[in-house]
Amino acid sequence: MNFRFSIALVSLLTTSFFAQAADRLPTIAPDQYNADQKQAAVDFEANRKVPVFGPFEPLMHSPQMMSQARSMGDYLRYKSAIGNTLSELAILITAREWTQDYEWYVHQPIALKNGIKKDIADAIADGRRPQGMSDDEEMVYDFCIELQRNKRVSDASFSRVEKRFGKKGAVDLTGLVAYYTLLAMELNVAEYQLPPDGKKLERFPK
Q: For residue 192, which of 89, 98, 102, 71 has the smallest C-alpha distance?
């Protein structure tokens, strides 16, 4: 169900809003793909059920990397050991820490659909620690914030995640932060633009 919702949202974005990369890494029209790009696009649509979109558009300038990134995302986004709801929380935290407008634009409604409370998402957007988090949300928040800001995770935060989700969960949660950091970095470097109805995250520090 969550996967179908995500696909529907992506289809809406790609068909209605036409978010485009800036001049640095402009979106390549499908009729201008070279052989490697054509194959990468075919593989992408076979796995994601939609054409290349969003962060994968600037990555199409390196189609082999795009395909590898897509494959990693297929697992982390939909099959990680921590589940889809907490995965979306980790994605929101990463998007906020990198002030990645498009990543937030896509994933904030998905996070709400998957059970993240709006007050929690709003607090993250404002750069505040959310109140009223569940135990699972709190441990994911602490782990992700420490990893992003301190470049390390404390023994206490690691132990909570390991006890709840096992070593696989700790590895997958780290992978989620790393993967969406990669996409955020690529989008920021590309200066990828928001759709017309998008709202930019506040820039920190004020």
A: 102
Give the span between the Cα atoms of 141 and 135, in whole angstroms: 10
Calpha distance 50→59 (Å, rounded): 16
Number of domains in the chain: 2
Q: Is residue 38 part of a domain?
A: yes
The model's pTM is 0.88
153 shares a domain with 112: yes
Residues 64 and 25 occupy one common structural domain: yes
The per-residue pLDDT for range 19-39, each reduced to its tens digit, is 454 689 999 999 999 999 999
Whether residue 28 contacts residue 37, with contact meaning beta carbons closer than 8 Å, is answered with: yes
Tell me which residue range forms the domain holding 73.
2-78
Angle in degrees, 0-180, between the axes of helices 135-150 and 84-97, rounded to the nearest 10: 30
